[in-house]
């Protein structure tokens, strides 16, 4: 399987490309390959930044090895802030938990990602509650079955990061297909939702084995993210958008006021962020750094990051005059965020502290409004056709 | 919404239609003159802008290319709210996609801007051998419902620019002596009121 071993220097003019960045960027200078094999297009500065990031990743790796040497291998696997606080008064556990939180915000080295994610996200625990053969049995049981979900998955396989050196091969398509189809049977309420193709694809690249990618997808949808993010009219996603809207108002009032005057609804850009967990918007290493924290600290992290993207560009945003300008500023920003620390520093040090409990409260507050709105729309659509013709001449 | 200043017109345009019908491909062809055999699936929506010169005016389209999967339906109103024009896209090789297109037409008739210019595009016209929806059927439906109809191919570029040009021509124009405030067309759907501007369907 395709790995992260590509330590070779940035190669110019590689033949494959990462479409979401590729198609939206107007002024292109060079193409280069990033840490996970995506070809991105940017200017020479971007290429240099990416080289620096590679170096930082190596340094960060050393920090993890040093801790492993002093605290013992796998020390981080027994540590969790909340469980340490609750269950154990052992001081060393608490210290470890705090160290770990800081360390994770600085990035998990790519080689350790599969192991650390699998354990800290809860995927390992989830997997341990079923027989070892669960995934294989599932894949065998669903083989050859055709459902609306499998048809849509087949449709999207070649449309998921087209051109990627591993994902866009028959082997890559087959792996992605098994993970998505398997999940669509595990949870038929979700079935298949567009967006999951990108998430699962990136999970495959990181986790290296299909089965682990499957469990990561499961823990993400079932435990990490808000309920019904991908099912039921995407109601969970609607809730997140409203919560985000309110947070922006609170944390970035001048940006919010300006955007409101332009009649710019933040969900115009943020919907894709929350459904693809930034995988379609940010460079791959930056996305994965967000996921490092997401799997340890939970879904509130998505708000930190989304707020940070706006906050970073406050000045430029305040100068926009049209909705289109706002979108251009935001997209230029996200596509150029090759240095994850630029984003994460703002996300965790500058947007202000948010607890998961507070976010949960905000969600609870928004849920009834979302349900009412979705319900009302549905009723309006199904209402008698009396006034249909009045819209026409 | 369509706003008019001098001879320039800003028009919000939305593309709606089944997943894989070719909405993104049509936009990419129109905006960049390109076609990709495998176009990434759209999540939420993607934004583009493109300016067209028609007759004496320039029209700047602000294009929202939406996601086609059924469950994304609940996001659609955000994109068609206040739109001056819509292109409803189906795939001529898929009867289901035509059914879906009709649903979109109904929804826009009920909840869209009443002056909206609507086009029905039967895309993938290059795949004649796989055709499931006849041009006659689609044209008849379009005429009944006050849309204009074209078969397009994002792949060969057939009729792609033409759809956008035709929309640009049909967008309601301000009368030369109208006061500026009156030039802003309806931007709130389904609330009645500003139906004064003439409809061109
Ligand atoms: N032969 C042919 N193929 C086309 C044409 N237009 C689009 N396609 C192909 O059909 C597939 C889907 O096209 P998209 O433009 O992504 O469809 P979409 O409507 O944007 O789909 P969603 O984003 O999933 O809603 C792509 O692989 C395109 O290459 C066409 O005119 N002819
Ligand atoms: Mg699309």
Automatic annotation (TrEMBL), chain A:
Transmembrane segments: none
GO MF terms, alphabetically ordered: GTPase activator activity; small GTPase binding
SMART domains per record: TBC
InterPro entries: Rab-GAP-TBC_dom, Rab-GAP_TBC_sf, Rab_GAP_TBC_domain
SUPFAM superfamilies: Ypt/Rab-GAP domain of gyp1p
Domain annotation Rab-GAP TBC: ranges: 107-298
Pfam families xref list: RabGAP-TBC
Cross-referenced PANTHER family: RAB GTPASE-ACTIVATING PROTEIN 1-LIKE, TBC1 DOMAIN FAMILY MEMBER 2B
Designated name of the protein: Rab-GAP TBC domain-containing protein
Organism of provenance: Centaurea solstitialis (yellow star-thistle)
UniProtKB/TrEMBL annotation, chain B:
GO CC annotation, single: cytoplasm
SMART domains in UniProt: RAB, RAN, RAS, RHO
Keyword Transferase: no
Topological type in the membrane: Lipid-anchor
Coiled-coil portions: none
Record GO biological process: protein transport; vacuolar transport
CDD domains documented for this protein: Rab5_related (cd01860)
Molecular function terms, GO-annotated: GTP binding; GTPase activity
Gene3D superfamilies: P-loop containing nucleotide triphosphate hydrolases
UniProt subcellular location: Endomembrane system
InterPro entries, per the entry: P-loop_NTPase, Small_GTP-bd, Small_GTPase
Pfam entry (one): Ras
Main localization category: membrane
Keywords for the protein's UniProt record, in alphabetical order: GTP-binding, Lipoprotein, Membrane, Nucleotide-binding, Prenylation, Protein transport, Transport
NCBIfam families reported in the protein's UniProt record: small_GTP
Family per similarity comment: Belongs to the small GTPase superfamily. Rab family.
The protein's role, per its UniProt record: Protein transport. Probably involved in vesicular traffic.
Designated name of the protein: Ras-related protein RHN1
Record lineage: Eukaryota, Viridiplantae, Streptophyta, Embryophyta, Tracheophyta
């Amino acid at each position: 399987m395709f790995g992260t071993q590509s330590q070779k220097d940035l190669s110019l003019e590689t033949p494959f490309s990462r479409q979401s960045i590729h198609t939206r960027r107007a002024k292109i200078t060079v193409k280069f390959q990033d840490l996970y094999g995506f070809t991105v297009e940017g200017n020479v500065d971007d290429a240099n930044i990416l080289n620096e990031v590679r170096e930082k990743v190596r340094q960060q790796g050393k920090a993890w090895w040093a801790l492993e040497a002093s605290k013992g291998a796998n020390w981080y696997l027994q540590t969790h802030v909340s469980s340490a606080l609750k269950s154990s008064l052992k001081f060393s556990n608490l210290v470890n938990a705090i160290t770990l939180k800081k360390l994770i915000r600085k990035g998990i080295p790519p080689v350790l990602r599969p192991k650390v994610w699998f354990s800290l996200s809860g995927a390992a625990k989830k997997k341990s509650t079923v027989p070892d053969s669960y995934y294989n049995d599932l894949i065998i049981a669903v083989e050859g079955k055709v459902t609306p979900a499998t048809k849509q998955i087949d449709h999207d396989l070649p449309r998921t990061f087209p051109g990627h050196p591993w994902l866009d091969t028959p082997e890559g398509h087959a792996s992605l297909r098994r993970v998505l189809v398997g999940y669509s049977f595990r949870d038929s309420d979700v079935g298949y939702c567009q967006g999951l193709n990108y998430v699962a694809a990136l999970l495959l690249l990181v986790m290296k084995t299909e089965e682990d990618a499957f469990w990561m997808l499961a823990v993400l949808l079932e435990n990490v993210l808000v309920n019904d993010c991908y099912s039921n009219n995407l109601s969970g996603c609607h809730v997140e958008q409203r919560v985000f809207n309110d947070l922006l108002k609170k944390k970035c009032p001048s940006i919010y006021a300006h955007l409101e005057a332009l009649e710019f609804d933040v969900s115009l850009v943020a919907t894709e962020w929350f459904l693809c967990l930034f995988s379609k918007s940010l460079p791959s290493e930056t996305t994965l750094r967000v996921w490092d924290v997401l799997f340890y600290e939970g879904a509130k992290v998505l708000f930190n990051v989304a707020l940070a993207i706006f906050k970073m560009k406050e000045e430029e945003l305040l100068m926009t005059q049209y909705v289109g300008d706002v979108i251009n500023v935001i997209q230029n920003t996200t596509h150029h965020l090759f240095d994850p620390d630029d984003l994460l520093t703002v996300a965790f040090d500058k947007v202000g502290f948010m607890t998961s409990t507070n976010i949960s409260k905000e969600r609870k507050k928004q849920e009834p409004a979302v349900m009412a709105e979705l319900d009302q729309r549905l009723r309006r659509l199904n209402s008698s056709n009396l006034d249909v013709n009045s819209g026409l001449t | 919404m369509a706003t008019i200043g001098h001879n320039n017109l800003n028009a919000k345009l939305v593309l709606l239609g089944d997943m894989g019908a070719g909405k993104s491909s049509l936009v990419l062809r129109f905006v960049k003159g390109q076609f990709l055999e495998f176009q990434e699936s759209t999540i939420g929506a993607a934004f583009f802008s493109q300016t067209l010169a028609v007759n004496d005016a320039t029209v700047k389209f602000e294009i929202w290319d939406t996601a086609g999967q059924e469950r994304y339906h609940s996001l659609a109103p955000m994109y068609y709210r206040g739109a001056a024009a819509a292109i409803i896209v189906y795939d001529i090789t898929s009867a289901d996609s035509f059914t879906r297109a009709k649903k979109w037409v109904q929804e826009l008739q009920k909840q869209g801007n009443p002056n909206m210019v609507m086009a029905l595009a039967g895309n993938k016209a290059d795949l004649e051998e796989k055709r499931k929806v006849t041009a006659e059927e689609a044209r008849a439906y379009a005429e009944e419902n006050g849309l204009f109809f074209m078969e397009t191919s994002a792949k060969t570029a057939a009729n792609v620019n033409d759809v956008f040009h035709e929309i640009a021509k049909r967008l309601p124009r301000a009368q030369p002596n109208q006061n500026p405030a009156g030039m802003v067309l309806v931007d709130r759907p389904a609330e009645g009121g500003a139906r004064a501007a003439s409809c061109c369907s």
